[in-house]
Structures are given as structure tokens and as C-alpha cells.
Amino acid sequence: MAFCKEFNAKTANYKEGTLLRVKVRVFSDKSYEWDLKTPPSTWLIKKAAGLARAADRPGHELAGTVSLKHLYEIARVKQRDTPNLPLQSIVTALLSTCRSMGVRVVARPEEA
Known about the structure:
The protein is of the alpha+beta class. It contains 4 helices and 4 strands; from the N terminus they run αββαβααβ. The protein folds into 2 domains: about 1-35, no CATH class; about 40-110, Arc Repressor Mutant, subunit A, CATH 1.10.10.250.
């Protein structure tokens, strides 16, 4: 019951339906500790691009587009999980994730 109350308190500011990752460590004395992680990169990219799913054949078909500005916003969110990683490195990883999903990244939203 305590876990549910803690979880509800920590997730109160998230929108309903937001996919969250939770890391739970249970110890031998039946105590536990848990960390709330940011949503997966693929989920955030699909939300930014307005997609229900990624491309079936990435590289051969285009599922959608997302702007570089959106990727930087997603990188700022993801930086909470890895505070020592530079923002540029996170954006580079997100670019690779977009490529593997069949999502095109454009410099400006008007180019979509």
C-alpha cells in the first residue's frame, strides 16, 4: 500500500496515458527502493511526430517527421536520467533512434 501511495504522489504531475519506466530494487529484508525514469525515447518521438507506430521498413518508408527543435526538447527530458551526458550526445542518439524508426528529422517544422 505504501508503494502505491508513493507512486501516485510522484506521478501526479504526469498526464494520464504517459508511458513511464520504473526501476524497483527489492532487498532480502523485504524493503525496497524505486526510481521513476523518463518515458522511452521511441514513445516520446512517436508523440512528437504524431504517430501510432513506427515504420515497418525503416530506410525504405517514411513514417513521419519531427523537427530538430522537438529532438532537443526530448533530449532535455531524457537528460534527467543521464545528467552527466552532454545534451548534444543525447540528440545524436535520438537522431539514430529516429532513423531506425523511419522518422525524418527536419531543421524547421515548415520543412515537413
